[in-house]
Amino acid sequence: MSTKRRSGLGEKANVFAALGDETRLLLLAKLSKGQRHSISELTEGTKLTRQAVTKHLRVLERVRIVHAKRAGRESLFTLDPEPIDEMVAYLETVSKQWDAALTRLKAFVERDKA
Amino acid sequence: MEDQLEKRIELSAPVERVWQALTDSREFGEWFRVKMEGPFVAGEAVGGQLTFPGYEHLRMDIVVKTIKPTSYFSYTWHPYAVNPKADYSQETPTLVEFRLEVIRGGTLLTVTESGFAKLPKERYADAFRMNTRGWEQQLQSIEAYVNKAS
After folding, report:
1. Are residues A15 and A63 both part of a single domain?
2. For residues B101 and B79, what is the distance between their CA atoms, to the nearest angstrom?
């Protein structure tokens, strides 16, 4: 069974590429509690430098998983996974349902031959 | 933005057999898991209770659009209308199309569902919430895993 998509996969691939890094996953995990964090807070308890953390945050920002907001002298980062594309997630759900339904259809129409 | 799903599947059964499984509402219900209350008639609405385990409390309603034996069958519906209390009637339905082609050894069936871009955004979120464990939860389990490992 094959699925054809008109677009959107490229964007998704970028998101997954951004996620394909242990440090960035850890940063996301820290941000996943819903609070805003400064770079200092995110650097705390890691072996990383501020510069390294900043670099990783920028990568996450580019694919719009993480957003930065300036607060005084520093930037506060939040996790905002919605741009990951609710529609892609939705289509995936519908797509899986079709896969399951068509698998049942196949069994149903091929049953008679057996 | 992508707006359409397309599925292709080769079936080792003659086109007539597949056609019947798609357009005889009772047979359709066998594999789609719905107990349709009437036949499929072009231009008419029909529906029935789902028989899918865990979803028996839900109905599925479609409006049959085109029946062109034995190559094309289409209907519109509200996909993923899983909230029995919600009123989906104001939403633009999606169009489901089945195309059948004779191939060596059977039938090539192509299913397309289109019109997702017109669905209200909340609908995406519903399905997202229901069908994934959610980002936060995923990430927290990663964190838990990493913390355990270190």
Report:
1. yes
2. 25
**Phi and psi at residue B72, in whole multiples of 5°?**
-145, 130
What pLDDT digit, counting tens, does each position of B89-117 carry?
788 888 999 999 999 999 999 999 998 87
Whether residue A76 is found in the same domain as residue A91:
no
In whole angstroms, give the CA distance from residue B97 to residue B101. 13
The answer on A70 and A37 residing in a single domain is yes
Q: What value does the mean pLDDT take over residues A12-36?
A: 78
Asked whether B127 and B100 are in contact (CB, 8 A), the reply is: no
Put simply, the chain B residues between 101 and 140 with a CB less than 8 A from any chain A CB are: 109, 111, 113, 116-117, 119, 121, 123-125, 127-128, 130-132, 135-136, 139-140
B86 — contact with chain A (CB < 8 Å)? no
The sign of the dihedral angle between the CA atoms of A8, A4, A104, B70 is: positive
Residue A2 binned pLDDT confidence (cut-offs 50, 70, 90): very low
Q: Say if CB B131 and CB A89 are below 8 A apart.
A: yes
